[in-house]
Amino acid sequence: MSQPENNGVDHPAHDPHTPEPVQNEDEAATIPEAGILGRAINAVGIVFALGIIASALILLNEVVLRYGFDSPTIWAHETTIFLCAMAFVYGGLYCVVRNSHIRVVLIYDMVTGRAKRILDAIISLICLFAAGFFAWAAYGMVMKATFRPGGDVHFETSGSAWDPPFPAYLKIFLLVVLCLMVVQFIIMAVNYLRGAFASEVGK
User: Where is this region: Disordered (predicted)?
Assistant: First the structure.
């Protein structure tokens, strides 16, 4: 039986444990271990990016109204702070699924293969406990920001002339993001461990 021609090009053997390449470039930035939740988190990131653009336009509008027409608004400053704060809070979760957070790689870069995947799982578990601790702390803040001592629902406001309930909204959003981060770290830890021992099973 004749062998197929390779035309002088070496084709590396396909590793069954290597994730298939993602066609969408933005999805490719999400690490495979993040799973479906990670891809969803990555996709939603555009909403908060647009929020930063909106905050810049609001500030531009405020400059024109204040210095061009001597008619400043009472809502621009707090709205831009709220939009940017939402983006920064979501940014932590966004960096997790793209594996773009800052880390010390002195030991990490010294290991490869299965050892690196196991180390990734350990790191994910440590981050899981840290995110869970902060989520518990955020829960206490949310309860104080949304309920009066008597039990009545009352959202914490900024106390300004406009007095929006942005502080309460931001604390609720922080709690949601931290809870999602806990779930995401669980998914990543499991997938890293599965990847670490999959090659052993395949042998």
Answer: 1-25
Determine how many CB atoms are found less than 10 A away from the CB of residue 130. Answer: 14
Provide the number of structural domains found in the chain.
1
Question: Could you tell me the pTM of the whole model?
Answer: 0.81
How many Å separate Cα 76 from the centre of its chain?
26
Is 190 domain-assigned?
yes
Question: For residue 104, what are the contacts with CB-CB under 8 A and spacing of at least 6?
Answer: none
Whole-number Å distance between alpha carbons of 90 and 107: 28
Within a domain: 20 = no
- Does any domain span residue 138? yes
Cα separation, 95 vs 30, in Å, equals 9
At residue 200, the pLDDT reads: 54
* Contact criterion met (CB below 8 Å) for 86 and 173: yes
Q: Are 51 and 86 in contact (CB under 8 A)?
A: yes
What is the C-alpha separation between 50 and 54, in angstroms, rounded? 6
For 82-126, the pLDDT digits (tens) are: 999 999 999 999 999 998 887 777 888 888 888 999 999 999 999
144 lies in some domain? yes
Distance CA 84, CA 93 (A): 15
Dihedral (CA of 22, 109, 190, 12) sign: positive
